[in-house]
Design brief:
By secondary structure, this protein is of the alpha/beta class. The chain folds into 2 domains: 79 residues, ATPase, nucleotide binding domain (Nucleotidyltransferase, domain 5); 113 residues, Nucleotidyltransferase, domain 5. 35% of the residues lie in helices and 25% in strands. It has 7 helices and 13 strands. Strand 2 and strand 3 form a beta hairpin. Helix 1 packs across helix 2. The longest helix has 22 residues. The chain is globular, with a radius of gyration of 19 Å. The two termini are 12 Å apart. Bound molecules: adenosine-5'-diphosphate, the ligand CC(C)(COP(=O)(O)O)[C@@H](O)C(=O)NCCC(=O)O and potassium ion (K). Homodimer. It is found in: Cytoplasm. InterPro entries: ATPase_NBD, Type_III_PanK. One of its GO terms (molecular function) is metal ion binding.
Length: 244
């Protein structure tokens, strides 16, 4: 058994793996990550053979995760995964490949391994990232935009009167501030994806991941998309399996 840990800017996602299967545990919000919470999360699981970690979030949380892992399992091998210029059949488009967020890199790796087709990968997390991969496994570059929660928070922080709530309103022009912010931010995300897809001259499979993937996928006016919540974790598994 191995342990996979994907540390984003909002939440820590994790999974155990057995015979190539990913068994995801409950995500943990970053503002609830402390030593006690991590021990509670993992004290009941078998000692992993190895741990693979990707982190685009805060460095102090990464240090905490590494420290808890070493407390729980003496001498455990913790592999901190980084973006590469080329690996697992995927070629990173960045001029400085190590600058591509490792979560984006691992999603590319996972999509190429699992679907092996040209794709538009959208990670609907703290940020919304769009990455394109062609039929040869060549990354065609990407885009970074604020995620739904960041957009809402930016509106509240930059204005005197705006506030939002957690309600799922209907996606249409609205007659309250909260509902208007819901519709406006969702429209920004949907519009970004529809824009990118409208510019493509070849067929791409649209694949969404991240905390807001289902919500956004449900409003797209496009050919059916795939929602795959475990892409980054699957990318971590590819790295571990490539190193056995
Ligand atoms: N239960 C939840 N807790 C926190 N965020 C959630 C939850 N459900 C959906 N979300 C949305 O998911 C986003 C975080 O998605 P996630 O993929 O975990 O991001 P990241 O990888 O950046 O940490 C939040 O910005 C929020 O809009
Ligand atoms: C763009 C991101 C902030 C997305 O992070 P997330 O929303 O998954 O927490 C992350 O992939 C990152 O820090 N990237 C480095 C810069 C880049 O990819 O160009
Ligand atoms: K992510």
């Amino acid at each position: 058994m191995n342990l996979l840990i994907d540390m984003g800017n909002s939440r820590l996602k994790w999974a155990m793996t057995m015979a190539g299967q990913i068994m995801a545990g409950p995500p943990l919000a970053n503002d609830r990550v402390d030593r006690q919470a991590l021990i509670k999360l993992w004290k009941g699981i078998y000692r992993p053979r190895r741990i693979a970690v990707s982190c685009v979030g805060a460095g102090h949380l990464l240090e905490l995760v590494q420290s808890v892992a070493r407390d729980l399992w003496l001498d455990i091998d913790v592999i901190l995964v980084k973006s590469q210029a080329q690996a697992f059949g995927v070629i990173n488009a960045y001029q400085q490949p190590e600058k591509l967020g490792v979560d984006r890199w691992l999603s590319l790796v996972a999509v190429w391994q699992k679907y092996h087709c040209p794709a538009c990968i959208v990670d609907c997390g703290t940020a919304i990232t769009v990455d394109l991969i062609n039929a040869e496994g060549r990354h065609q570059g990407g885009m970074i935009s604020p995620g739904l929660m960041l957009m809402k928070n930016a509106l509240v922080q930059g204005t005197a009167a705006l506030k939002f709530d957690d309600t799922n309103y209907s996606f249409e022009p609205a007659n309250s501030t909260e509902a208007a912010i819901y519709s406006g931010t969702l429209a920004a995300a949907v519009g970004l994806i529809e824009h990118v897809m409208s510019k493509q001259t070849t067929n791409l499979q649209l694949i969404l991941t991240g905390g807001d993937a289902e919500l956004i996928a449900g409003q797209l006016n496009l050919a059916p998309s795939i929602v795959d919540k475990d892409l980054v974790l699957r990318g971590l598994l590819c790295v571990l399996e490539g190193r056995t």
